[in-house]
Amino acid sequence: MPDVTTNTPAETEEIGRRLGERLRPGDVVLLTGELGAGKTTLVRGVAQGIGSKAPVASPTFQLVRVYPGRVQLAHVDLYRIENSAELRDLGLEELVQQGAVVVEWGERLAVDSAALIEIDHLGGDRRLIRTKRDLSH
Ligand SMILES: Nc1ncnc2c1ncn2[C@@H]1O[C@H](COP(=O)(O)OP(=O)(O)OP(=O)(O)O)[C@@H](O)[C@H]1O
Ligand SMILES: [Mg+2]
Looking at ligand 1, which residue's alpha carbon is closest to its atom 30? Predict the structure, then answer.
């Protein structure tokens, strides 16, 4: 996906929706970007893109939420992850076997071959969404 600047949350959601439409089981997408960058907003679009109508909230206190769709989407948020035991308990491998996985604060995870998307504040409501590594398909 080419780098893009968005000017509204809806535009970021739209980028997420297009990404969601491309997702296949086994895909892992790591999202990076500071607090309030728009990671959850993007995932809201990803959920639409897999065909889920469920509202996407921040899974801050759950670490992971699963949305059924054309492919299952696991939405992971590592902001509050504290240790490697918690990471193990997440059952990431199983989630990857069951569907696609999108991870906020993805830099806390080392996954070879994962797609990597960085969101940067450009001031106001402008955000730069950069694909550092795209999906392999
Ligand atoms: N172009 C834009 N794209 C995305 N969000 C935007 C944009 N402009 C303004 N916003 C606002 O920025 C905030 C982004 O919040 P969001 O929860 O998506 O960020 P986040 O990266 O998930 O933060 P956190 O690290 O706390 O999880 C929302 O309040 C949203 O309305
Ligand atoms: Mg978030």
Answer: 9
